């Protein structure tokens, strides 16, 4: 088996990888880790923080989630279709300053895995791509952007169009950074998609899945490029708060 260093994209200022294993390999050698989960965790984080709220990421379907929410005096998000859930539309009218524990199998779990790495952990999406890139440039250091991806029924990673293009939207604005080949591929994906982002997102596997389930509004909210100036940063208490 190859040494993990082979997969850390050493020698590059800006790096890109996928999912849990990408976090485990690259977060320990990064100064900033950006978690991207467009449909829908990091889009939800942006929506909540834009209303002055706070989001606590948590492992998906973990039995201790209710107890954890009580301990941080937050509301535990439920399943899609419930008043507060992993649905950007459900969060767009929450009370200002609301504190939410938001479990998800992808973005929340990746953020949870990254929180003890020593890196600054940021939630990125299409909605706040430029704001996140500006934060990275102002902060400096080595950055890794993680596309969280989705899950096949067996639990394995399913690479997701929306996460790669959002990662590319962020990486493409890191002018002067030396991008790894993986990061350059993400930028190329964004450049190819940016003029048709909404229709392509609707036609993607993740978009079709949500639209078929009755959540077309979530896809529309997630598709808007640079709608937000919020930069969600994970604090020491394990909550995403506004970094700006």
TrEMBL record:
SUPFAM superfamilies from the UniProt entry: ComB-like
GO molecular function: 2-phosphosulfolactate phosphatase activity; magnesium ion binding; sulfopyruvate decarboxylase activity
Matching InterPro entries: ComB-like, ComB-like_sf
Enzyme Commission code(s) on record: 3.1.3.71
Reactions catalysed, as given in the entry: (2R)-O-phospho-3-sulfolactate + H2O = (2R)-3-sulfolactate + phosphate
Pfam name, any one: 2-ph_phosp
Swiss-Prot/TrEMBL keywords: Hydrolase, Magnesium
Named cofactor requirement(s): Mg(2+)
PANTHER family: 2-PHOSPHOSULFOLACTATE PHOSPHATASE-RELATED
Family: Belongs to the ComB family.
Protein name according to UniProt: Probable 2-phosphosulfolactate phosphatase
